[in-house]
Amino acid sequence: MQKKIIIANWKCNPISTKEGEKILFSLKESIKTENEVIICPPSVFLSHFLTLFSGIYSFGGQDCFFEEKGAYTGEISPKMLQSIGCKYVIVGHSERRTIFNETDKTINLKINRILNSTKLIPILCIGENREEREKNKTFAILKEQIKNALKGVAIGKAKKIIIAYEPIWAIGTGVYAEEKQIEEAKDYIAKILCDIYGSKTSKIIYGGSVDSKNIKQILGTTDMDGVLVGGSSLKPKEFSAIANYK
Predict the structure, then answer these.
(1) Omega of the bond prior to 14 within 30 degrees of 0, cis?
(2) How many Å apart are CA 238 and CA 246, to the nearest integer?
(3) Exposed e or buried b for every residue in 62-95, given b needs 16+ CB within 10 A?
(4) How far apart are CA 70 and CA 68, in angstroms?
């Protein structure tokens, strides 16, 4: 069976390195898998965790800036993430789009900066909200987000990108998209990539209320390349069951 990509997005959790260490040491004992397990903790913890758990997990940033360096108070550049050993970085998460008003243009600048100046692998998040779903605008939203995000990205670099389909209405709600909805979204995303590049190019994963109870349905019936996990990734027993999927 093909190895799956299992990504933990801890968001703004936990509040101390001690709590984070406890989670990671627990996972170290319980995760027994060939799947690629990627941990994306808050940036202030990254260097510490990379020192303690290098070679056990892969690590990624939850976001980055679109410039390499300069007078940008509070920002973290892709090169900074790479310099401490990160391999991945999340871009365009729905919370960045809705809470922090990130635009498609900003996300495109980030994607291009990452691909042009580092070896980091971008995890590009896309997805529709409840109103857009109910008005049958899902495909139009996905097409717009993908095309805008990939402007100026050549096929060779596009192959590095992981695309995470995260329907906003499913994130943190306990309700995950139905298998048919997930499969339709994946097929459409693949079609858009084929229209742009002539082939699927990118791996496609799913995010949105993923847990140990639905992981088999999500990965076993939809042919997704992996999952992006939010709240469940902070619970060692839950995340271990997800990561150990086969």
Answers:
(1) yes
(2) 15
(3) bbbbbbeeeeeeeebbbbbbbeeebbbbbbbbbb
(4) 7
* 102, amino acid identity: E
Q: Residue 28 is which amino acid?
A: K
Q: Which amino acid does the sequence have at 146? A: I
Among 27, 39, 98, smallest CA distance to 244 is for 27
Torsion of CA 159, 217, 220, 41, to 10 degrees: 40
Q: How many domains does the chain have?
A: 1
The predicted-structure confidence for 161-202, as pLDDT tens digits, reads as follows: 999 999 998 887 777 788 999 999 999 999 999 999 998 889
State pTM to two decimals. 0.96
30, exposed or middle or buried, with CB in 10 Å at 0-12, 13-18, 19+? middle
Domain containing residue 127: CATH number: 3.20.20.70
Catalytic positions are 93, 166
CA-CA distance, 19 to 54, in Å (whole number)?
Answer: 18
The separation between the first and the last C-alpha atoms of the chain, rounded to the nearest angstrom, is 7
SS3 content of the chain, % helix, strand, coil (to 5): 45, 15, 40
Give the range of the structural domain holding residue 146, as residue numbers without chain letter.
5-243
